[in-house]
Design a protein that fits this description.
The chain is an alpha/beta fold and 417 residues long. The strands form four sheets. Strands 1, 2, 3, 4, 5, 6, 7, 8 and 11 form a nine-stranded mixed beta sheet that branches. A hairpin with a 4-residue loop joins strand 9 and strand 10. The radius of gyration is 21 Å and the shape is globular. 46% of the residues are buried.
Length: 417
């Protein structure tokens, strides 16, 4: 690294520290029954490697393993160092008692791994506006907290009417709505306005597909360009915090962690096994550095890299499995799913990225400076075969695109080069 680059790197780090911006990932503790310390350690180490600052620990009120797993999580985070945790009380999966919430916060508020703001333990939720009147008692019994709930059911205007209770808000609005192909940042802007200077935590997700009919869940949210679009919106909005939704929710195909078979819920194995998402993390070091520095003009931390994500079957290759386009939608997911290989490249300068399907190839040129570029290679029922992505003389082979299936799986496989 040249002297100029070292000086620039120090400036970027100073700007990041001064901004106070942090990136968290949503971690489903409910999936960790009998999970080992080694697994927690692996998750924390791999999250740190890509620039993630901590986990929001989603938990329900009735899982018998919660406290054992929290103990392992905090132990692993303390051992790793420079990695934080905070509780995210899931208010949609059962009734939390005040003494439960107080006891859990008090148990870990002194841990060096506990995320804190102005000395107050950081606390979040998934939903729970009906529980709002209990937070005053929680504050009193814990010596105060820094509360940033996700009350997305209220919408930003509804949250804006409860500012006396909260220190900020987290928006779960991270996917295109039914019938929409792209994600908008409109609601993020409204949140920032309604919060009137209080902290805003923006939800960012790479993907969404779930087919768990026993839980009345069977929809796909358009995700062809979502990972790219949402991070560009982060760099535009510059929220106080970002929360990646999710680290490990395999049942909703929003995971970016390495696949953990023991965490996959019943019914999801058929669309999670052989659908790795860990390559989504490859572009995070640059994106997170840019977000924290408040500018996309930062040095690329590492080598040029590119990722590609795609479905392994065209959207109309077979029956749609009754999957709908978006939550609450009525149209088939096949109407909203575009048959493309999505490519996201982070490079120091102008170079070529080549993508092939079978014998067909497309090449894309990245821009002349360190940046994030996005490309798409379309395919259809007549464009099938093995997939490759090539960059700077390196080539990665991905699973083939095929029409040989009984029902279309709308999850994506992700590869990197």
């Amino acid at each position: 690294m040249s002297l100029f680059s070292k000086i620039k790197d120090r400036k970027n780090k100073w700007a990041a520290e001064k901004s106070g911006r942090k990136v968290f990932a949503h971690y489903m503790v409910g999936l960790t029954h009998n999970q080992s310390f080694a697994q927690w350690n692996h998750d924390i180490v791999t999250a740190k490697e890509c620039g993630i600052d901590g986990f929001a620990l989603n938990m329900g009120p009735s899982d018998s393993w919660t406290y054992d797993q929290l103990h392992l999580a905090y132990q692993a985070a303390e051992q790793a160092g420079d990695f934080v945790l905070f509780p995210s009380f899931d208010m949609a999966c059962g009734m939390w008692q005040v003494d439960q919430v107080v006891g859990l916060i008090n148990l870990y508020k002194q841990s060096p791994a506990q995320m804190a703001v102005d000395g107050k333990p950081f606390v979040s939720t998934f939903e729970g506006p009906d529980w709002a009147d209990n937070w005053a008692s929680v504050r009193h019994q814990t010596g105060d907290i820094f509360l940033v709930p996700a009350w997305s059911s209220l919408g930003p205007y509804g949250v804006g009417k409860r500012l006396d209770i909260i220190d900020g808000a987290f928006s779960w609005d991270a996917w295109p709505k039914a019938g929409q192909t792209h994600m908008s940042a409109h609601e993020d802007r409204i949140y920032k306005e309604c919060l009137d200077g209080k902290k805003y935590m923006m939800g960012v997700s790479p993907y969404f597909y779930t087919k768990l009919p026993h839980w009345n869940k069977n929809w796909y949210s358009s995700s062809e360009s979502l990972w790219h679009d949402r991070w560009q919106q982060v760099l535009e909005i510059m929220p106080d915090y970002v929360q990646i939704i999710t680290w490990n929710d395999f049942g909703e195909s929003s995971y970016i962690c390495d696949t953990v078979p023991a965490q996959i819920v019943h019914g999801a194995h058929k669309y999670v096994n052989d659908y790795p998402h860990s390559a989504f993390r490859a572009v995070l070091p640059f994106l997170i550095a840019a977000y924290k520095a408040g500018s996309s003009k930062v040095d690329l931390p590492g080598d040029d890299t590119a990722i590609a994500w795609y479905r392994k079957t065209p959207a109309r290759a077979a029956h749609d499995g009754d999957t709908k386009w978006g939550q609450g939608g009525s149209q088939s997911a096949a109407e909203g799913a575009r048959d493309v290989i999505s490519v996201m490249a982070v490079t120091k300068g102008s170079t070529s990225v080549a993508v092939t399907i079978g014998g067909q190839q497309m090449s894309f040129k990245t821009r002349n400076k360190a940046s994030v570029d996005y490309f798409e290679m379309p395919f259809d029922n007549g464009t099938t075969g093995p997939v490759t992505i090539s960059l700077n003389g390196r080539t990665t082979y991905g699973p083939e695109v095929t029409c040989d299936c009984d029902k279309v799986i709308f999850n994506a496989v992700v590869i990197q080069v």
